[in-house]
Fold each of these.
Amino acid sequence: MAPLLRYILSSAVGLPLLLLLCSNPTYAFQPVLFEKGSEGNPLWEYFLQHKQGPVIHKWHSYFDVYHRYFQRFRDVPVNFMEVGVQSGGSLGMWRSYFRHPNSRFYGVDINPYCKLFEEYYPGVTIFIGSQSNRTFLRDVVSRTPKMDIILDDAGHTMIQQIVGLEELYNHVKDGGIYMVEDVATSYWPRFGGALDTAQHTETFISYAKRLVDRMYYGYLNYRGHAYTSEARARLQGHGPSNFTENTLSVAFYDQIVVFERGARPSVAVHAVQGDFSIPYNAEVAFDAAVMQKYREQLLGNRA
């Protein structure tokens, strides 16, 4: 087995992500390029052509991730919120990318000068306040419709990213996207990050890993695989409310974590089809007579 594939299969995040990519043709065979955006990606092309006006500040690896998740929204009315406006150039990029005339765009930033972009981009609404202020974020939620996409590109500190997700995730529609970028700050002390979280405040990456655990909360007692009540309480009490029942997937990319929101059962339906099966027994000794019996059953049923 190739070393990379072995690593993916052994990773707590890698295997679910691999299954997601293989099972969804929208994502399959569209590799994310790290050194630049892909040719034909309209966001990458916009970025390359943008020579004047408000600055766009992005890592090259982001553009293909954006397009992978956002392209299905391009020609429908979309409610888009960018948390962290800064110099405003990305607002113009999003207005160009999402082409439906009834799309609505919202920005959130702590810098009061960012209000200027309401004048520069007609129809854009800017809210001024801190992402770490729960009261402020709840006010933003009360004054805006539910979002198809929320992109967190704000201050990148641990408290900002975690509070932002906790307060805004439920403001995303079913089928929508919540995306957090610049998550490398989880490893940078200046932003509250740390590699060893045992001695530090939780980072966004460690928080997101626990949310992956929460996606599997319904399986903690599945078919007798019981966990302690303490473990169940720890998972159930962590993260946005109803996360388990309202998250389709969590995907980790280079400096980006993507949450796809949508209703799902806490335990999926387990179905069996067909009329031939081999009983599971990992330690059974080989028996030629049993093999012959299975051969006759299997080949006898072949269409």
Amino acid sequence: MAISGADCVLTPPWIFPATFRSVRALLLSLLLLGCSAPEEAPPPDPPGAPTVSPTSLPPGAPPPAAQPFPEALQQRLAEAWTGRDPAYTPRTHHVREDGSPQFTNRLFLETSPYLLQHAHNPVNWFPWGLMISAFARAALTLGEPDYAARAAAAAEFVLGNLRVDGTLRRAWLGAPSAYLAYLEDHAFLAQGLLDLFEATGEVRWLHEAIALDEQLEARYEDPAGGWFVTANDGEALLVRQKPSYDGASPTGTSVHVLTLYRLLAMTGDDSYRVRAEAALKTAGAVLERQPLALSELLLAVDFRTDRALEIVIVSPESAAEEAVDALMKPLRTTFVPNRVVLRVREGAHQTALEKLAPLVAGKAARDGLPTAYVCEQGACQWPTTDPVKLAEQIQVVSTY
């Protein structure tokens, strides 16, 4: 049974360090978001099987925006509820008159007290950006479009439901909360949308990432460099905090500096570099004294000091997706951390994308085949339609 991103409504309370973020975040998301890996997914209900209403479950319905649970899962949840400890009390404010929870997710089947305390939560959305990144990167790396579809569904939900009058809200509890989103909410989501753009080539995701950055610049950015946790139009505080430590979850500052360098590589807009380097300067003392305190920010430093590659994949409008995937295989099997990927189809798609990313202008598919252009700061190597040649071009290692 395929599970869309909208099914994954409980977000992880933590995330692992930067170096292994994508793989570990994906695996953690599959557990805590209530998703199943493809090989472990429950079998589909047989044709004609009765549909069980989620509201008839003793432990309550799925969280808001989730699809009804498969019947087999509903049965397991019902059995777990029937066999619960008589002293069990749902840790949630969302309860019915009889004290039973309004919502239940898959964590109710766990035995860990830590996980059980989240078993009846509705959506608190801010780590969705990290989840979107995990699924989008998995889609690009593994060539699995289903992962990209899950990431896109999650992005659609957040952008469609958590944005009120152009500003993001912190949480979803059946409706957007009144609380404004924080720095990390914007930074994580902007990163996830860029990853989704690289995985799919859809111009919309690049446009939305740029729009989120504009919100950060206007409402969260410190003129001296970096960003405050809260917005300048938010609750009045004695002090607006600026994060300076990457813990189990990275800071919005560290994530967004790398996002700015990626936007610079994609768009050629030097204002991204100016703002990224201002943020780096404000963190300079910490990086010099205790660099591992900002482990995520070190990824941005590495991107900045490397000669990052701009890889453009141009396809004819009529090209089969299999042909594009064949050319992109070296990108899936070669570790190239400091690079951006722009996928474009000739015609209207290319015209739309070149307004945001002028790098793709004038690049054509050669001999009617998907064609790769490997560039550095806009200067490109000879275009190739050969995956072997592309592998050679991206395997060049630059010395510092």
